Amino acid sequence: MERRDFIKAGLVACAAGLVPLTGCASGGEAPSAAQGASGKRWALVVDERKLNRAGVLDRIIEACHKAHNVPAIEGEKTAVKWIWPESFEHAFPDIASTYVSEGVEEMEFPMLCNHCEEPPCVRVCPTKATFKRPDGIVSMDYHRCIGCRFCMGACPYGARSLNFDDPRLHLAEIDPAYPTRVRGVVEKCMLCSERIDKGMPPLCAELSQGAILFGDLNDPDSDVRRALAKGFSIRRRVELGTGPSVYYIVEGGEQRA
Amino acid sequence: MLEKALHGSKLYWGWVAFLLVVIGVGILAYANQIQNGLVVTGMSRDVSWGLYIAQFAFFVGVAASGVMVAIPYYLHNYKEFGKIVIFGEFLAVAAVLMAMLFVLVDLGQPARIMNVILYATPHAMIFWDMVVLSSYLVVNILIGWAALGAERKGFPPPKWAHVLSIIAIPLAVSIHTVTAFLFCGLPGRAYWMTAILAARFLSSAFAAGPALLILLCFVMRKLTPFKASDKAIDSLAKIVCYAMILNVFFFLLEIFTSFYSGIPSHTAPLEYLFFGIDGAGNLVPFMWTAVVLAFAGITLLLVPKMRTNHRALIVALIAVFLACWIDKGLGLVLAGFVPNSFEQVVQYVPTLNEILVIAGVYGIGLLVLTVLYKVAVGVRASLEQKPRRDEAAHARAGEEELALG
Q: What is the DSSP-derived secondary structure letter of residue B159?
């Protein structure tokens, strides 16, 4: 257990201990909160070779953006993106080299919010509009966001988009199951928390034909942990200490298995 | 005292009218931004802060520089600054106001600004910036107004105002330190990720702010009865000189650390600023202009013959001010986003609408400054017209008080 986790667990335990003392909260809630904080830690493991062979990334992006009412804005300048493809060179500029293998050079890497363990966006948000759920999902309250774009400056992954324009003007059809946003607020991938809360995996994992695994990093028997144990994986910009939760298995995983 | 701002020459009213027109145009441009969103600006997904935030950082500096007059006067009893300290404080008021307005116009959802207080978040630097900026604004209004009111009545300023002036000194340092913390704690933005950012901010502020104050003193010499003494101006000019030398020195430290280590993320923003990357370099002419201005300004300020020659001094001060403006009000914020998270260079060009909004905020700042300076100058002028009678009256009042006590 790391020191930070130890302190966090200690604080949670203190809070849990205080609640019954106040006598005004039901005793049942505190332990579940404690369980949540130390319980799940959701992550995605992307098997790059499988994903590119299946050729499903475009369909995943389309389905994700449609399900979450992500506006389709022309041009890169003010684009809103939750998940999108990048080349190895752009996704991993710090480890890319001129002599990268041809296969990797041609691969498309899905970019999305990394749901960091220590999210800088949460740290800088002045209204807690961006916050970290107990299960590790970095979520947002669109009604609280003031549009200061501090989170966009803080995110080292370029995962956040501002609604420069009214997003509803750029939606062919609106999915009533998911809220739309207003102009002037930031948005990003929420790891399909609305599906996870119903016990379903994120849409990208579901549509990936097994190339994107979803699971709990704290559970040694989960799909993600088993995949990480088997193959060599990389994450984006780990040197920054953000603790990204999206892993990419680039090569060699299934050959040795 | 505010009534002093209601009497003035044709030139005064012409200037006020001009500022009101500029402000009006700015408000219209801002209304357009409210109506259509930040899409009317040049900002993008990759360069998510532009000139608004850059101007914010710059004017926090101008505001903080009030201490360069306050420290010698309040802490070292340097009497020469006695007459200009009020102008330093009123400049701080106008500059803080501008800084806060620049943050406001930058917001995507300005109507929700109160969320920063409703959901106060101590781990967010903006929260602290809001706290220190608003305190600094209030403190400077109180000090300036109390000092001027006391001067009008011929009394020394009240004790609480003196206490506040002392408190204002660390507060001034804090506003620019916290503003630097907004930038230098962001992982992945190598250009801002430097421990001396706050020191750089302060040194550039202490150069640009007093430079502006001296220039304003020259304007007042020409247009008003208030004549700042040559000695006060020369002392301030020395402060500008050494602060600017420090500022350039700090910048050279950045250049050494970046290029000697050769870490690409640290060299890239500087390369972008001074040489451009892959043909993208719309800030290159500005940065080299700043280099020339900075060295020209320092040279003129260092040579006593030049510094005391007011024509040369004015040129030097304008050079220093512009160099600081380019470095902080332009390059610092924009280069922080280059290259982006995907090692691509995306450039930012402000739109006309954005520039008009900025002009509007400048207009508001200048109007507030004009009114405050007019009041200060007016109060002093009316004192000089009837000094004897007032002094006699106060002496009598004092005797009566004693008699009653």
A: H
Q: With pLDDT > 70 as the criterion, what percentage of chain A qualifies?
A: 83
Nearby residues of B128 by Cβ (< 8 Å), 6 or more positions away = B122, B178, B181
ipTM for the assembly: 0.88
Q: How many CB atoms lie within 10 A of CB B371?
A: 18
- Write the CB contacts of B340 (distance below 8 Å, at least 6 apart in sequence): A158, B46, B346
pLDDT at B7: 87
Query: Which residue in the block uniquely carries the two structure tokens 């919010």?
Result: A113
Please indicate if any CB of chain B lies within 8 Å of the CB of A132: no
Helices in B114-196 by DSSP H: which ranges?
115-118, 125-153, 159-184
Can you give the pLDDT at residue A251?
76
Mean pLDDT along residues A174-196: 96
Is the dihedral angle over the CA atoms A81, A198, B119, B115 positive or is it negative?
positive
- DSSP result, B194-208: -TTHHHHHHHHHHHH
H or E element at residue A47: strand A42-47
Which residues of chain A have a CB within 8 Å of the CB of B39? 78, 164-165
Q: Please give the Cα distance from B101 to B59 (Å, whole number).
A: 10
Whether A45 and A225 have beta carbons less than 8 Å apart is answered as: no
* pLDDT, mean over chain A: 87
User: What pLDDT, on a 0 to 100 scale, did the predictor assign at position A36?
Assistant: 47
Q: Which of A27-36, A85-94, B266-275, B380-389 has the lowest mean pLDDT?
A: A27-36
Give the closest of A126, A154, A158 to B121, CB-based. A126
Chain A window 10-69: which residues touch B at a Cβ cutoff of 8 Å?
Answer: none
| Whether A48 contacts A109, CB under 8 Å | yes
Tokens standing for A107?
A: 């691969």
Q: What is the DSSP letter of A198?
A: T
Task: Taking each helix axis as running N to C, give the angle between helix B310-326 and helix B230-261, from 0 to 180 degrees, rounded to the nearest 10.
Answer: 40
Confidence of residue A22 (pLDDT cuts 50, 70, 90): very low
Closest chain A C-alpha to B341 CA, distance in angstroms: 6
Single pTM value for the model: 0.89
Half-sphere exposure of B19 (CA within 13 A, CB side): 17
- Tell me whether residues A77 and B45 touch, CB distance under 8 A: yes
Work out whether the CA dihedral B111, B50, A237, B177 comes out positive or negative.
negative
Give the DSSP H/E element, type plus range, for residue A162.
Answer: strand A161-162
Average confidence score pLDDT of chain B: 93
Closest among B140, B238, B257, B134 to B190, alpha carbons compared: B257
**Residue ranges of chain B with per-residue pLDDT less than 50:** 405
Q: How far apart are CA A202 and CA A197, in angstroms?
A: 10
C-alpha distances in angstroms, B351 versus A46, B3, B52, B356?
Answer: 40, 39, 12, 9
Cβ–Cβ contact A163 with B under 8 A: yes
Q: Is the Cβ pair A126, B45 closer than 8 Å? A: no
Buried b (16+ CB within 10 A) or exposed e, B195-211: ebbbbbbbbbbbbbbbb
pLDDT tier for residue A114 given thresholds of 50, 70 and 90: very high
| Residue A256 clears pLDDT 50, i.e. is over it | no
